[in-house]
Amino acid sequence: METSGGLLLLLSIMLIIGVLATKFSSRLGLPALILFLIAGMLLNNYIYFEDAQLTQFIGTLALIIILFDGGTQTKWANIRPILVPAGSLATIGVLITSFVVGIAAMYILDFSLLEGLLLGAIIGSTDAAAVFSVLGNKNFNKRLTSTLEAESGSNDPMAVFLTVTLIEMIKTPELSIWSAVWGFFLQMGLGLILGLILGKITVVVINNIKLDISGLYPVLAMGASVFTYAVTDYIGGSGLLAVYVMAVFVGNSDLTHRFSILRFNEGFAWMMQIVMFTLLGLLVFPEELIEVFWEGMLIAILLMFVARPVAVFISMLFMGYNLNQKLFISWAGLKGAVPIVLATYPILAGLENSNLIFNTVFFVVLISALVQGSSLSWLAEKLKLTGEPDDGHTSMELINLGDTDSEIMKVTIPKSSPAVGKSLIDITLPDDTLIIGITRSKKLMTPTGTTVIEKGDTLFVLSDKEKRNKAKITLLGNTAKPKSSKSKKMT
Questions:
Q1: What's the pTM?
Q2: Are 361 and 160 in contact (CB under 8 A)?
Q3: What is the CATH number of domain 395-490?
Q4: All structural domains of the chain with their residue ranges
Q5: CATH class, 2-382 region
Q6: Which is nearest to 356 in space by CA: 308, 390, 24, 364?
Q7: pLDDT digit string (tens) for 214-243?
Q8: What DSSP element (H or E) covers 55?
Q9: How would you class 281 by CB atoms within 10 Å of its CB: exposed for 0-12, middle for 13-18, buried for 19 or more?
Q10: Distances (CA, A) of 300 to 46, 128, 138, 211, 361
Q11: pLDDT per position as a tens digit, 401-457
């Protein structure tokens, strides 16, 4: 009982400190994962933990949840124009990064060629958790943000494939390279197809099932994401790619209970990040990191200043990105949970230098997240890639009121709206349609007939469902695109 109570106390403290650390890390410009990893390393002085298999399982589950959260909040309109460059970075870019780092590691750590390439493959991908946490609340160029988010959400399968394949080649030298190449395309194809199919099924189920408890809808959505990974992985596809594709499809579909699902995902994803990074920190003994300090530092420098830039500039040839944009993308190749989780694979496979690989990867991730993550904002400002001007886009979301025929529209007014500059009394809305609230400059206003609509106002409009389009045209004009609407349901 005392042991259980102590573990629960430790878990509660870990979660509370983790939540507070997110605010602290934001002010410092550091990825939150740095503080979680350090917390785990400090706890290592009091808790002995070396269960790599449990850590790998929890890490994989956390990655599923993080990818699902990131995917559902990714706007298809933003990533559609950059699918080709993001896809190139996620495949060719990872391959080049892994090769350059692998050749360097072979000499620096006195590894065989396959062992060096294995270390390169493990740290070759950009980490979704790190990228989402660093880019999410920064005013970076939207095209670059979308490119990095799409790359980080879709490049994990390549890193996993390379890691697993190289481990098999080390254990089984006669393994055919052509069978491995075929396996890659099979995994990617199955991941893409099953992600789309299961995403569509998820939307249909959520929109049509009638649950007595509204709080179960987020649990249903989360269960669908884990199911997508498990089924895809079971039949030989890329489970992580399937989860990300499924999440993007779900997030860009009309979805009931959308608000509660997204908020639940966001909170749960943060909780899993805290648990995952702390557990990963527990696996490391600080004195072992000191032993690989110089080797790890040299590999980290080569990764940040040579391997990643070379991969970016080659894989993004003729993609329409200028020099400053490519420099920023090169520096934004943050490393995080995925490399550390993948570093447990050689340990479980019983490879000779598995502990050295793990400690080196951990050290490189720390340096990457600390140096690159903390300097992204500064670099974006120096390269003049921040503060895009207002493009006058429209924004509209729907909140369905249970089983009634009414709903609340949350409408953000663009500068092109015909309602800008008019008072509410001069705006002809459909019958039984009422503007019940306005937010302006982060303040909530109670509207009256004399309230004048301004560009950037967010209006909360109560309306019958069949009169939604008329109200939308009145407030946004005929240029409003129906596809931009997002359906939310809240009871």
A1: 0.75
A2: no
A3: 3.30.70.1450
A4: 2-382, 395-490
A5: mainly alpha
A6: 364
A7: 788 899 999 999 999 999 999 989 888 899
A8: helix 52-72
A9: buried
A10: 29, 19, 25, 50, 9
A11: 555 566 777 788 888 888 888 888 888 888 878 888 888 887 888 888 888 898 888
